[in-house]
Amino acid sequence: MGRVVVGMSGGVDSSVAAYLLKEQGYDVVGVTMQIWQKEDACSIEENGGCCGLSAVEDARRVAAALKIPYYVMNFRQEFQKSVIDYFTDEYLNGRTPNPCIACNRYVKWEALLNRSLSIGADYIATGHYARIEQLPNGRYALRRSAALAKDQTYALYNLTQEQLKRTLMPVGAYSKDEIRAIAERKGLLVADKPDSQDICFVPDGDYASFIEKTVRERSGQELPDGNFVTPDGRILGRHKGIVHYTVGQRKGLGLALGYPAFVLEIRPETNEVVIGTYEESLTRTVKADGLNFMSIEDLTEPRRVFAKIRYNHKGAWCTVEKTGSDEVTCHFEEPQRAVTPGQALVFYDGEYVLGGGTIL
Fold first, then answer.
1. How far is it, in rounded angstroms, from Cα 243 to Cα 241?
2. What's the pLDDT score for residue 40?
3. How many H-runs (helices) and E-runs (strands) does the chain carry?
4. Among 215, 108, 90, which residue's Cα sits nearest to residue 152?
5. Which positions are annotated as active-site residues?
6. pTM (2 decimals)?
7. Digit-coded pLDDT (tens) for 237-249
């Protein structure tokens, strides 16, 4: 069967993934990725989620219960560069990043997989709700989770063929209730542990304050406030700084315009936040670059697909076509609201991920 390194976050999903793989006959090794940036215990514990000390202790105890080796590996440098710096810079450039996608691609897979292979592993595994299959054309693709409500394929769309080939995702065949029931039956202490909801390095959810603090530490500068404007440049009021806003946002604008107002665009070069009506926030056309194709090698002709423009988007039908060497354009059949630069555009062929890119 081979040796598999399971990324253990201390949660129920990755814990059951380790159990299921051991039951299947794999030589399982548990690993928690150390990604917190400060050494002192108080700072580490404040991070909570998949980054905190409690996660390490929970994962260690689960590994002991399963009688598998367990290690903590240091990935702080990779996480700082590929996730935190990217997250901060995207907001400063007027875009809305998806740090979980960056973490999946460059830390959980690229860094963890490379290190795991170097110590003799054949595979890595996670507790994601997705399935990996090799298609008749020989390519590896993500298939939606059996539990569609928990499906996480959107956040994994940019994994490479080599990464998919070396990855196991046993949880994707189950529902969340079934996973918890397996954990309870096995007596794992994390059976009833709640899911982590926040971005792990911003546990209080205040992204803007985190970015402002990061910029202050980098340069000693404060981020300036600026103008809310209409699409044609008319000033409507003052904003708190562009990192406080994202395209599609309606709440927290502090504007009384006599109609529901939405963020249409963020202009970092002029430090302006463009405001408009609901109707103005709709579009049928979405462009993306940074492409990764999964079930096919490349897109050679226009194709009707089901696409998602953000993690919680229910998805919609569109026709996708190549409009550049590293660019696609999706023409949606119905208008879509809050198409947000920096987020992922992921398109599906049935249950399989066809590919995706970053919204322009």
1. 6
2. 46
3. 10, 17
4. 108
5. 103, 200
6. 0.92
7. 999 999 999 999 9
